[in-house]
Amino acid sequence: MDIKKLNMEKTYQTCKLIKTKIDNHLHEMAILFANLGTDSTQEEIKEAYLQESYLIDTIEELDPVKGRSLRTSY
User: Fold this and answer.
1) Beta-carbon-side half-sphere exposure of residue 38 (alpha carbons within 13 Å)
2) Whole-structure pTM over 0.85, yes or no?
3) Is the pLDDT of residue 6 over 70?
4) Can you tell me the mean pLDDT for 28-36?
5) Residues 11, 16, 18, 20: what is their CA dihedral angle, to the nearest 10 degrees?
6) Domain count, the chain
């Protein structure tokens, strides 16, 4: 059986393992921006957005619908 097809059957709502992994990535994203402040450089801000994009890509691999919803939310 194709791994991607098997993965498509499992989503954030139906698989506890995928939910936990996605929640951990969302937590990492929150920490990225919580650590930015008024004294953050443009380079640090840019790096946070790049890391966020990478984490959303990772989430999209686990659950494409959840990943797309995160990408369109901003």
Assistant:
1) 0
2) no
3) no
4) 95
5) 140
6) 1
